[in-house]
Amino acid sequence: MIGLAGVALVFLLGLAGPGGEARKVAPLIEDEWARRPHRAAECTFGKQIRELGSTWYADLGPPFGVMYCIKCECIPIQKKRRIIARVQCRNIKNECPKPMCDEPVLLPGRCCKSCPGDYSAEIVHDLPIQQTLEEEERSLKHFATLISSRTSRHLHDEASETNPSIASYVAAGRFTFHRKNLYYSFTLGASTPRPRSLQFIDDEGSILEEQIIDPIGGAYQNATGKLCGVWRRVPRDYRKILREEQLFVSLIWETTTTTMMTTTVTSTMSTSSLTGQLARYKALSTEQFSSLLEPTMGVDRTMMTGSSATAIISVSSTSAPSIHVSLAFNGVFFPEDIVDVPLIVIIEHVEKDYVLLTEEITIKKPSNDINFGEVRSALSGADLRLLSRGKLYITIASRKDSQALRLAGPIGPRTSCDVFQALLAPESGTEGSGLAWAFLDRFGALRYGMKLAGIDDKNPMVTLVDDGVKRKTELEDLTASLIAGTNGNGTLERPGPRLLEPLFKGELGVVVNSPLGSTLRGRLMQRPVAEAKDTSTPFLLRPAGSNGNVGLIWLAIDADCVLHYELEVGGLPEEVNDDDDDDEEEASLRLYLETMPLLAQGAPVSRRLLEEFNGNVLEGSVTGLSPIELYRIDSGIGFLEVMAVNKNVSTKMLKGQFKTRAPLSCLPHYADNDVASVMVYSLHPSSAEIETASCFHETRFYEEGIQWTAKSDPCLMCHCHRGVAKCDTVPCPPINCPAYRRARAPPGHCCSVCLGLPPDNFTTENPPRTTPGSKTTEDTNSVGAFKGCTLAGQFHVAGASWHPYLPPAGFDTCAICTCDPVSLEVRCPRVQCPTLDCDEKIAVRPDKKACCRQCPLVSVIPIGGTNPPATNPGGDGCLPKDQADSLHMYAAKRTPEEILADGGCKYPMGGPYENGKEWHPKIHSHGEIKCVKCRCKNGEVRCDRKRCPRSLCNSIANQLKRGERIPDADDCCTTQCRRARRHHRNHRNNHHHHQQTRHHASSKNPKHSVTPRDLS
């Protein structure tokens, strides 16, 4: 039995989270620091992810199961400034309390014995959260921060103080907590570049989470000018820090420091950071517009260094239009401003020199870090339209000297990264499905897109409707942007308050009406943007039938080759739409990824389960995709399928095709002189990819072992062998029937056929037999509506003759199959070979596929003539060897191709040789080796050394003793026998010495031993 302490040690050493690993070698100069893999502060135990502070029993899986005496924890480990996660398991068997009864029992799922009736828990096993997820999200919903050199001073960031290159950098951030994930969004100043990384830190400066920022960003970030991301699965302890507003965020840039020496100038690369504190703001829940304020031209730079402000703006377009502005700012105070400092807030149209609002606020006690202020005012409808079109600026300045201390910035869409999406489901009695999405770009324009499917009309009408009022007011008509009634993209350059207010409230509906009666309807709902949504378009998942289901999914592949996805489905049954873990075993949904080499008939499908879930929303990622799978996804031949599983019964719900761009570093690599194949299937998949060995030929795929006739040429028969399609030319057997009974090959066939009675060449000595598996078929598409036979999936008209096709060897020309024109039976008799007149050892086949072996041809040499000898009609091979060899003096010289075609053999020296030819091999350094004879037979060369039996060696030895001459034929044996005698002589001497040694030893020891030679 495995010791519990040993198992615990295994877990301590082998199952620690990713935070426990470290890079063991220094990065190369060419390595990109930005490509360092992201390591979350969480533990990985088997295939499960555990957050910091969680406790559980070790589950070893089958056959061991859960080890209730091994308690595991995910604990934080401090490494310099970073906090990483590590799994720590220990044996709690020795910690069991002593039972207070005489006969304790061990209950199931327990490690310690207890008294009957005692059901107290042994350890705290992932205590349930005191707050529900909804309550926690309400308390942690919205946060904001302002980042500048002034907000970073209290954390003692020496780099920001000593490095003036980032002193003017400013940024404003928004944070949204949703489903245990913290989504962040940043707006950067006009002169502030994108940071290289981002860190979440606590009040002591410990790094809780670090993420690398993409220097380019995706489609959404480029269109909006924002920086977007997410911290997934925030641990419970860190959520507490966030709730207490003790969490900080730090943006890090790579800067260059120049040092002036007496004769040289040196530049060094370093990192500098700016930090801001996450804080709650009530106005964030209704924020519609934002602004990042920076020092303007003409201000006092010595006093305004690091000054900045962010504005949270919301409007109301009801009966009394109004605006509400919340400001967080610093740096607009003089040194003598200590208490009750007046400031001016202005909203104006700079181009038209038109002031919408001028208000004065008073700051009771100014702070060097962050100050807060609010402004409320009534506005006209025209002013609200200017606000939504990005034409206004907001300014906050000191009333003492508004030119020396002044911050200003344009008013644009709110800072948070969010997209609005809608599932368009059919109303009762109609069919079809669709999706729509929209977002506000950096200029305030509303960009939108839509995808429709299953509509019974090519010219539907698409409108935006305000669902928040009773009359369902129509706001915009988007029909003109549709292409072929299926897809559409467009931009509303000037969205007014009547459109934006229901959009932010989640009351803006999309309605698709068809003149034939179909109606699709859905609402645009706000969703935070992370990796998957940072792309240009989502993809539609269509229902498998007319069940009213619809799905929308965003996908993206990052630089680490990780596929991120965000799925939303609608119209699902209640049993699978309930996001409750208690019903997980009864009903659930599964998301599958399917890829294939080519969109062709019969293509093999590689299927992978991505995740099993409940509810209508799923966010996740998958790692370990092979380069082949990523190549296929990049090529647009990937599919996603949603299946419902209820009591082991699977039902197809949704499926759709998608295409997502993959980085070049994730795709298969080629050498410089290689050309990437257009055919994805030409790339060999990894061993981990489960795929059947199918073959692609012409326009479709064929399974392993299948044979077929090529569509382009009926005289080509093909088969699939180990994933490779091989084709052979169809050989037509001879037919023996009168000309009037011969017919040309019907369409789709290669060889002529005999009509009427069976062909004359069908008769054989052995009675024919019907081939198993053949069946009678009538093909109405063949010429003359001939009846016929089917063998191995191939149709043959009545009266046809053919050689059977036996993959992978090809056609068997030693058998002729015939479809009897009367009985429609298939018979395949084999060719009968004549009796050989020579020894079977010397018989050869004229070619590799010859059915029968033949005796070598021997010719007679004429006496005193010069004409070529005639071939021996008997062919018995009984002529003397010298006469047979002289035949080559008169025979016409054949080409190497002809020799090899007749079963000849290739050979480095003197080849090629005829089939049946014998010769002595030659070596450059020794000449001809008489003791070795080679022979060519049916394309194969076999060489043997002359064997010298012991009787011949004894005879040669006796002849040498008598001084007699050794015949030339025995020269090979003379050398071999001499070498053999020398070997036996050495063996005898060694054996004699060994016997003497053993004799001396036996004189001391009376025990006698016998060798095998003595026994013989």
Automatic annotation (TrEMBL):
Compartment(s) of residence: Secreted
Sequence segments annotated as region (Disordered): 983-1016
GO molecular function: BMP binding
Keywords tagged on the record: Developmental protein, Glycoprotein, Repeat, Secreted, Signal
Gene Ontology CC: extracellular space
Signal peptide (UniProt feature, chain positions): 1-22
Annotated Basic residues bias: 983-1007
Pfam families: VWC
SMART domains: CHRD, VWC
InterPro entries: Chordin (IPR016353), Chordin-like_regulators (IPR052278), CHRD (IPR010895), VWF_dom (IPR001007)
Start and end residues of each VWFC domain: 693-755, 903-978
Alphabetical list of PANTHER family matching this protein: CHORDIN
Family: Belongs to the chordin family.
Protein name: Dorsal-ventral patterning protein Sog
